[in-house]
Model the fold of this input.
Amino acid sequence: MANIADVAKRARVSTATVSAVVNERGTVESGTRRRVLDAIQKLNYQPNLYAANLARGKTRALGLVLSDIMNPFFGEIALAIRQEAQARRYEVLLASTQFSKAELVSAIRRMIGMRVAGVAIMSTEMDPRVLEMLCAHRMPAVFEDVGTVSETVSNIRIDYEGGIFKAVKYLFDLGHRRILFVRSYPDTRQDESAFLSICMRTQAFQKAMQQFKPGGLEAAIVTGSGPGPKAGQQAMQKALGHVDFTAVIAIADPVALGVFRSLWAHGIAIPRDVSLVGFDNSYLCEYLYPSLTSVNIPRQRLGQMVVDCLVRNVENQEPGRELELETELIVRESTAPPRPARNRRNARL
Amino acid sequence: MANIADVAKRARVSTATVSAVVNERGTVESGTRRRVLDAIQKLNYQPNLYAANLARGKTRALGLVLSDIMNPFFGEIALAIRQEAQARRYEVLLASTQFSKAELVSAIRRMIGMRVAGVAIMSTEMDPRVLEMLCAHRMPAVFEDVGTVSETVSNIRIDYEGGIFKAVKYLFDLGHRRILFVRSYPDTRQDESAFLSICMRTQAFQKAMQQFKPGGLEAAIVTGSGPGPKAGQQAMQKALGHVDFTAVIAIADPVALGVFRSLWAHGIAIPRDVSLVGFDNSYLCEYLYPSLTSVNIPRQRLGQMVVDCLVRNVENQEPGRELELETELIVRESTAPPRPARNRRNARL
DNA sequence: CTGAAAGCGCTAACAC
DNA sequence: GTGTTAGCGCTTTCAG
Done:
């Protein structure tokens, strides 16, 4: 495969000149430039990026670690971040862990090996080794929720509390008094604490419930395991017939999907018999029938924050920051006032 | 950041030995090995992958180009391919083009720059420059549908015809006589021929219709633009009130989602008033209500084929091959016999 | 079993 | 404006 020397020879210039042309650096006389471009064309020259990055000693790349490439919400985040990164002339290396800690650690290892300028860890699962590694290498990083800001690490706190509070309040105001919270547990081989955002969303729910308890609100929590939809279904298997409720809040949209399906399968109509609220507001929500009320996490904003933190840290040596990302409730068709009890099918079997 | 020389010095060995330990190559005495491992630990050494790959002169990486990271179906494919690749100790570099030809070309450029061993192009859009570049570099490649096998390029022909035929036949046998085919057009800035799989699926539909024409089957085709669901909705806007039909086949599941939504919004019940068939059988199908009948493309099998072609080509110099991937109809709840005409709401407004 | 040293292909001073 | 050249950090013969 042709290399820079071949091009240089053919264009009768030095490798430095070729490099200058390729990287649009310095000033090259237009005639020389032409010759180089011609040679590149003829030889189908494509710079070896390993050599280039090695020589440069730094990269304009950001790492992005996600939990589940099959969840459209993660896809949307990846897109938002990539867009933001491209605007600043960074590329992004994507890794999907599928909720495995081992994959997480090896993804980070690979990113460090690739000498990315910074890394964003937007995964559900977490592992202490990650922080260790990043610190040891003084690698700029931004996390979601994992709250220990330092010189090199930033944290974006998503306002789960606010979002869930709004959801609970909305349901309460509609007249609901018994709300079921459905959680998922992506990988049973792992400790529950591994999935921080699950814990945080759960706590947020509990806290919100406390506030409405005096108003007569009752809550239950049920957990299913496996990938989102499966977890939602499984959780509903457990809940139906044992727990009485008029509304469900799912911890994430894919989980809501499972709940959705499960309710219909039992002849429970949404929102007539039960109201359903999702979390993340992925684009799917709009297309379900009934469309799904969901707590929105502004992806574009998240993308900006992530890239901004990283770039500031890298380019201006600014220290890590703690940022908060607001959430909002997007009301759609899946929520409505509960039916009067006497008209309601008994949710207990 | 610590490099191999630092480790070597600390362990009082040569860099060659460190390399041997890191790559588990050759035999290193266990005492020496320990010292090296210790040093690595102490210094938090992570090999620079640019240097490593540059020195090695080849990589164990495969490139994968997809059109839309937000479509779960692509995610499933990515996962299948990654799994298959990992089994053979290759990693995969992922790129998502979002249906843009320019992105496609630059993704390929990047893969070549990264000297991947081979590349799989599973995107909807195509560009002649891609083939040029790949040929010029004698880069092993596998395409989906783009049928020009050569020494280095393989092609996996997905049996759209068979799949769509099965769908049409199934609907016909149920009693449907007027079927609407809904297509999407992801990016109107681009020529229609750019989206090969769309053309192929459309042709497959037309061909199937021909065969049932004598039986009294009538067909219509309508096209929407934009990302899947949007296209589906838009297409239905056009069709409703102008075309009469009792069943819809959507060109892809996300499109079906838009159709789904649009039909409900007009008070048309699935499958009571209209039957709906999707394409790709993404995991969502199962979770809609009613669950979606869809043509399955076996992802796992696709992943195997892709990686197998590439690896054989790379490691055994086997020439490119033409493979066929079978499809099947997965029947779920969204399809049923049509209602007798006299009971049916008139689909014309 | 281990070390010395020659690259891998490119970039970035620095000299002309 | 252009060329020379010393690295970048690692792998891999080839001796020892």
Notes: Chain A has a mean pLDDT of 92.
